Amino acid sequence: MQPVGDRTEDPPAAPAPGPGRSTRRLVEIALLVLLVALPLVTNDTFFIDRVGRYFLFAIFAISVDLIWGYGGLFTFGHAAFFGGGGYLVAMLTTRTGWFLPVPFWIALPLAVTAAAVLALAMSYFVFSGREALRGVEFAVVTLAVAVLAERLANAGGTVTGGQNGILMQTRLGIPGVISLHRGYGFYALTGLLLVAVYLGVRRFIRSRPGLVLRGIRDNEDRVDLLGYDVAQVKRRAFVLSGALAGLAGALFHVHEGIVSPGAVGVGSSTLVLLWVVLGGRGTLLGPVVGALLLPHLTASLSGTLLDTWLVTVGVILVAVIVLLPAGLLGFLAKEPEP
Amino acid sequence: MSVLTVDAVSKHFGGLRAVDGVSLRLEAGEVRGLIGSNGAGKSTLLDLIFGRTRPDAGTIRFGDTDVAGLAPAARARLGMGLVLQVPSVFPDLTVEQNLRLGALPKRLSTPAGDPAADVARVLDLVELAAMRQERAGHLSHGRRQWLEIGMVLLTRPRLLLLDEPTSGMTRAESRHTATLLRRLQAAGDVEAMIVVEHNIEFVGLVSDRVTVLHRGAVLASGTIADVQQDPAVQAAYLGRLR
Fold first, then answer.
1. Number of domains present in the structure of chain A
2. CB within 8 Å: A222 and B139
3. Which of A17, B10, B180, B192 could lock B57 by a disulfide, CB 3.0 to 4.6 Å apart?
4. pLDDT for A15-34, tens place per residue?
5. CA–CA min distance A185, chain B (Å)
6. What are the pLDDT digits (tens) for A23-68?
7. Domains observed in chain B
8. Is B241 helix (H, G, I), strand (E, B) or coil?
9. What SS3 class is residue B4?
10. What is the reported pLDDT for A7?
């Protein structure tokens, strides 16, 4: 078939080209070099351990960016999965009776699976049918989930430990072989996991379901009119996101040695949104940077500016959001994902 | 067998009869123009056919399938395609990605295959090959409309429904669109089309037959010449355009 021809107008001026895919690749390489080099240039075990925690925050932030940045699903309740992962590991490894307690390496996949199942159950409720929720309605439901999860954790008595939470009795690593619970071992474990999660989610975003998910973010009605099962695609992304948040939360709380109701609540859910916004929503790398920078900034300033650190962090956040509304790495979003 | 059979379909919104007992039959190879003044029920009829609105009465058959109760996505998978009046594309995705979304199998369980050849063909057809890596949001209105037509075309629809495809276009762009639709019809890309339009010149360029709606009901049906001579049509619609 021939083109239509009959061109009568000049094409509109092409928009200024954004940074090429090579820019994303450069930032990826720079961060990877930093990740590998950091333990080689410092012998501050406490600092290395702290960065290892931030890597788990970064996985949590990636899980939120997947559904918010790439799927347009704004969530106020993702800590339910993050903290939920921690609670499940805690209960499975500390409670007694029936088949409990189980070793950590059995508890971990069970916790991740449970987070995925919770996400699946939630997604059937909110995404299916003609009255499927989207936009603000979806955000309000996730907010309700976070509030409910925190209340349940507080009121859970001996099951959840109530306000005190549950003290962990397990450690990361293989007993008698290698400890990954603190310092460089923990850094290596979480660093490798972050790289694997980043690559996996990037692959998902560039896959067919990922392309449809990005289409849903842009124009959900058009995706539906083309014949796609919108609910099915959202479900996939939400389950993946919930599982990743559960994985990060399980490891984080084992490392912390305790899980308490605040882990599943609105506060934690809001914090992760800040990391995503600060770094750049819908860039995948931005939330990683946000989850590394903001907690580091908070920890550093709280140690030096004893009375004013919270205000200072707030002012810095507002300044960044005003000056760079797309986030620190928002420039990456100018170049479409493949 | 007719591609589409609409039988005595009605739709009321409160006291307003938006579509009132409309019947029409569309044969293979036919391009039907649907004209009428604002509020005549044209767009509502398209919505009823595509399932975006449920009828209060009447039946709609697509081929030999009664599509009552089927959601729009299911009708799309059956072989209907809808192009909206305001271009409905994915602004943050590239032109090529927009077309890939049209071409890829709609069931995720179906192997994806490689739609590159189909996408390349349609890129050429809608003359967007040079802009394949541009974001769709950067295109002009007319090009977005052609992109949407190309995207829907890649779903391989047997029936293509177009709701005022030249709305907001220049005259040259409208003619360009008419040429595009004629080429689609001639190449057999689409079995049949319904084109809702206000632009009579455009309707004359693309349609074999025209149905005139007035206050939700069919006022006249025939060739463009027939309906232009119809006194009732002149009084109700065409006279206002002159």
1. 1
2. no
3. B10
4. 444 445 689 999 999 999 99
5. 40
6. 999 999 999 999 999 999 999 999 999 999 999 999 999 999 999 9
7. 30-54+70-241 (3.40.50.300)
8. helix
9. strand
10. 40
